[in-house]
């Protein structure tokens, strides 16, 4: 919810009271959070020797991910989509120079993908996605790439908002499917390790995606950079679908039923 309301509130706050006072509010909230954090009572660690060294645990997780094609394919597709589809990093330029909608418009643009992802997660809670999961993931990321291209080419504010909204929808679908694959294809004793590897992939691709967007915008221009990123996402999805028919035909129905019986 914070990712939905935060950007929109930030845009309106900048419009109402300016950048400096908006940042002062953020500083005040950070200090408040810091104070509240120290109110949490300390608890002793009963046995500090439980578990294995961090690096050894991480190596085990990476080794398992690279051995499991379904998990490796899901994580890699998501990483590439975020890496090349990082249009969010360039939203200030679009809001100010291309769409000319100011800080309020920037807030709406920034919130649109989060709103789409949030609604998708609510809907997918009631819609089974285990059947033909591989194909659904490929279609979702392909749709994400299309949305990014439409956003890059648009010079009309509401078309840009709709494109970003559906980029959030498709990204939300891919995230739900990816997490489902991770849960169903990972044995219990490896869940923590695989979750850590997934977090590293996702976190690093977000930052590298912002860097890639800025670099390509400098070299190619803002619009061309966004279209290039969306196109690379489409090429990656098509290549994965052709090169890896096993991932394209991935079905989680049996895994889901087996997991249900265990519960």
Structural description of this entry:
The chain has 263 residues and is mainly α. It has two domains: 39 residues, no CATH class; 209 residues, MFS general substrate transporter like domains (Growth Hormone, Chain: A), CATH 1.20.1250.20. 81% of the residues lie in helices and 0% in strands. It is built from eleven helices and no strands. The longest helix is centred in the N-terminal third of the chain and has 36 residues. The chain is globular and about 55 Å long. It starts with a helix and ends with a helix. The model has no long low-confidence stretch (mean pLDDT 80).
> What's the CATH topology name of the largest domain?
Growth Hormone, Chain: A
Detail the poorly predicted runs. none
Distance between the termini: 30 Å
Which CATH architecture of the largest domain is right? Answer: Up-down Bundle
Number of separate strands: 0
How many helices? 11
What composes the largest sheet?
A: none
- Indicate the proportion of strand residues: under 5%
Helix/strand class: mainly alpha
**CATH class categorisation of the largest domain:** Mainly Alpha
Helix and strand run: HHHHHHHHHHH
**Roughly what is the average pLDDT, rounded to an integer?**
80
Report the C-alpha radius of gyration, rounded: 21 Å
Q: Percentage of helical residues?
A: over 70%
């Amino acid at each position: 919810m914070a990712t939905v309301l935060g950007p929109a509130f930030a845009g309106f706050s900048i419009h109402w009271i300016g950048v400096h006072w908006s940042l002062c509010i953020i500083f005040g909230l950070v200090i408040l959070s810091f104070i509240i954090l120290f109110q949490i009572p300390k608890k002793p660690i009963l046995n500090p020797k439980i578990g294995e060294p961090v690096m050894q645990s991480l190596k085990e997780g990476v080794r398992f991910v690279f051995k499991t094609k379904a998990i490796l394919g899901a994580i890699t597709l998501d990483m590439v989509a975020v890496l090349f589809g990082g249009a969010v990093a360039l939203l200030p330029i679009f809001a100010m120079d291309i769409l000319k909608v100011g800080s309020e418009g920037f807030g709406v643009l920034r919130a649109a993908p989060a709103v789409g992802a949030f609604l998708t997660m609510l809907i997918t809670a009631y819609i089974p996605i285990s059947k033909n999961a591989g194909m659904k993931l490929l279609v979702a990321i392909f749709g994400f790439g299309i949305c990014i291209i439409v956003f890059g080419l648009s010079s009309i504010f509401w078309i840009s908002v709709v494109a970003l909204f559906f980029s959030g929808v498709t990204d939300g679908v891919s995230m739900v499917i990816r997490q489902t694959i991770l849960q169903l294809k990972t044995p219990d004793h490896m869940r923590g390790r695989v979750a850590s590897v997934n977090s590293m992939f996702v976190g690093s691709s977000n930052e590298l995606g912002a860097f890639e967007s800025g670099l390509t915008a400098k070299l190619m221009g803002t619009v061309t950079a966004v279209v290039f990123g969306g196109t690379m996402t489409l090429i990656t999805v098509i290549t994965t679908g052709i090169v890896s028919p096993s991932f394209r035909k991935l079905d989680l129905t049996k895994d889901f039923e087996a997991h249900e019986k265990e519960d």
